[in-house]
Every structure is written in C-alpha cells, then in structure tokens.
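for the recovery benchmark. tokens below, seq after
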C-alpha cells in the first residue's frame, strides 16, 4: 500500500497517559449500514466508545453538564458508550460507566470491557437503553430515548495514517489539541443490530463501514469530516470496490496556536494512494473549503490539491436525516452546540491531474453513504 495506507495499531491504542489522563479524551468511532430483516430497508448506524478524564474519576460517573457539577465546576469523568442511527428517526443514545467500572487496555492495541459493552480491533459489542423519562428529565445525558444492541465482527481493510502530525514525537509533546487516526477508513462489519425492537443484518459487502479515532485535550472548530467507500465511476458506472476517501480537520491548534482553516485528505483509488496532507509540506498540499446550511440541507464544498492532483468534493445531506452530535470537552464546556452529523450524504468527486497550469479531468465519481460532519 501507499504512504498513508499503512496500519498503525499503536496510534489506535489507548492514549490517555500523562497530562491527558487528567484533561483529555480518547474515542473509537464506528459507522456502518445494515438491512432491516423484516422490511429490507437500509439503516445507517454508529457506535462509539468515549473515555474522558480517567484520572479524575472513580466508581461514580461524573457528568459535566449536571447542574451540581456545572455549579461547582467539576470536570467530567467516565466511559461513555454512544450508539444510534441516522435517517428520518435519527437518534443518539448514551450509556455511562465510572472509570473504575470499566477495564481499558492497550499500549500496542486497545480493548475495552464494561459490563456487556466490548470493543477491540476485531469486534464491537454492547447495548444502550434510555427511557423517554430519563431523556427528558436528565438533559445532562445529552441524548434521546431508545434501545439499541449490537454484536459485530470488525475487519479493517484500508487505513488513513496521517503521518507526522500524529507521530510519536508530536504525541509525546502533546503538540496538537486534537489528534486523528483512521485505522479503518474502509472497514468490513458482520453481525446484527437491534434498534427499538427491529433487527438489522450487517453484511461486509453492503455495510460501507468506517472506523477511526480521535484524542486530545479539546475539539477543533470548525470541525469537518467526510468519508465513504460507496463510490461509482461515472463514465462506465463501475462500482469501485477498492476505493475510499476520507477528509477531516478544521482549524487545528499546535502548541496552542491555531493554524489556518486546513483539512487532511486521502483518496485511495483502486490501489493508488492520493494524499493531501498539510503536515507534509513538500507535497504542495493546499485546501479550500466551504460548508453551508440551506433550509433543508447541509452542504460541503472542498477543493484539495498537491503537486500532481486536484480533488473537488461536493457533498450534501438532508437535515431531516442528521442529528446534532453531543459531546462535552474535558473542561466541561460544550464547544459545539450545532455539530451536524450524518451518515446518508450523497454527492460527487472530480479528480484532475495537473499538467503545467492546466487541469486534465481523470474521472468523476458518484458517492453515497457518506459519513459527514460540520460544526463551528
């Protein structure tokens, strides 16, 4: 594989040591599509395991948005298991564990065990149940009502290794406020999900799966993410089974200094790795992006280039199929009150090869099942 498409399970390991154990978060994100066993309809799902400020906690869950904790300025501490779906009934469900209730392993690889909730490089399993009364009466839970259970095998196929920005030296220095590693920007899932009584089958050939992680001391703003491996070449209608793109970032801070609005991007095109990475300045990587809301949609326009290629990505997602993803930062603040998040985005990519001052169109691609996020 190419330079960015190399596995690094050490980056995917548990990262909350040193100062980040006292003020830090670490999460493992998974998203995929299943098919309703009864109706045959598709449903896009997500599951996340989120650890916050483990050194501050004990047996009890400390919710930063609880009134008494806001009043006393107590920082949050817990393992949060987040699960939910996108679509016209989009929802997120949260289950919390005190840090001493959970077992979290992994300097070379990671493993999480908390009651029936499990996560590792090769499986995710668990359940969440939130009643309507809990959701309405306890806003500090930051979620809706519902029940979801999942049991899935995980096979990560194509990584996006961002390189030096999340390398050992930069990690040891805590240089960045927020780090990113996608061990499985294309991931195959197999198993089943039960959502509010409906059973969904998740199959490798139709799951359009994704797995990554973020960690750090705070969140970037703006916050942008786009990814999909549901990609069809327009000129011949061929579905590309060894192709995936991934774009993420916003305004990262390094040693406390905010950089310009920049994104990291990777396009793995049938075995050809094309990268747009600001941490590798010798590649000539540059990015322009614009995100906007209409009455009905969130729309992303991204143009990235390096010395050889220009990639234009245009994605839209209906607001009625998205939700506002809820997180609290390690200091208890809510950085994003409108973090749009979806998994049913659609759009197109145009890839150009540079020839002097000219651009030659290589191909145009239709993309679907796009994981998408925007908050500022």
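predicted aa per position
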């Amino acid at each position: 594989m190419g330079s960015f498409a190399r596995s690094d399970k050490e980056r995917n390991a548990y990262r909350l040591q040193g100062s980040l154990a006292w003020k830090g978060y670490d999460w493992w994100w998974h998203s995929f599509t299943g098919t309703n066993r009864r109706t045959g309809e598709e449903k896009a799902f997500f599951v996340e395991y989120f650890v916050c400020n483990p050194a501050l906690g004990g047996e009890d869950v400390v919710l930063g948005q609880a009134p008494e904790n806001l009043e006393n300025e107590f920082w949050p501490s817990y393992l949060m298991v987040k699960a939910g779906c996108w679509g016209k009934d989009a929802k997120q469900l949260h289950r919390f564990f005190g840090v001493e209730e959970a077992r979290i392993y992994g300097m070379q690889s990671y493993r999480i065990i908390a009651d029936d909730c499990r996560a590792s490089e090769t499986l995710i399993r668990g359940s969440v149940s939130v009643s309507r009364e809990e959701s309405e009466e306890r806003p500090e839970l930051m979620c809706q009502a519902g029940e979801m259970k999942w049991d899935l095998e995980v096979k990560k196929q194509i990584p996006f290794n961002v390189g030096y920005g999340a390398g050992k030296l930069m990690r040891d220095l805590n240089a960045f406020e927020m780090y990113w590693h996608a061990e499985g920007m294309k991931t195959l899932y197999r198993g089943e999900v039960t959502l509010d009584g409906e059973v969904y089958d998740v199959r490798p050939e139709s799951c359009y799966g994704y797995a990554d992680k973020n960690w750090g001391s705070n969140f970037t703003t703006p916050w942008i993410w786009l990814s999909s491996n549901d990609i069809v070449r327009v000129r011949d209608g061929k579905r590309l089974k060894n192709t995936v793109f991934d774009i993420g970032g916003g305004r990262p801070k390094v040693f406390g200094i905010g950089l310009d609005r920049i994104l990291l991007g990777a396009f793995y095109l049938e075995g050809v790795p094309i990268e747009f990475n600001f941490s590798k300045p010798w590649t000539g990587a540059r990015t322009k992006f614009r995100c906007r809301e209409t009455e009905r949609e969130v729309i992303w326009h991204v143009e990235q280039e390096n010395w050889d290629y220009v990639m234009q990505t245009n994605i839209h997602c209906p607001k009625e199929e998205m939700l506002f993803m809820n997180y609290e930062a390690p200091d208890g603040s809510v950085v994003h009150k409108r973090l749009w998040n979806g998994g049913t985005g659609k759009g197109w990519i145009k890839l150009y090869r540079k020839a002097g001052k000219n651009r030659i169109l290589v191909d145009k691609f239709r993309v679907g099942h796009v994981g998408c996020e925007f908050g500022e």
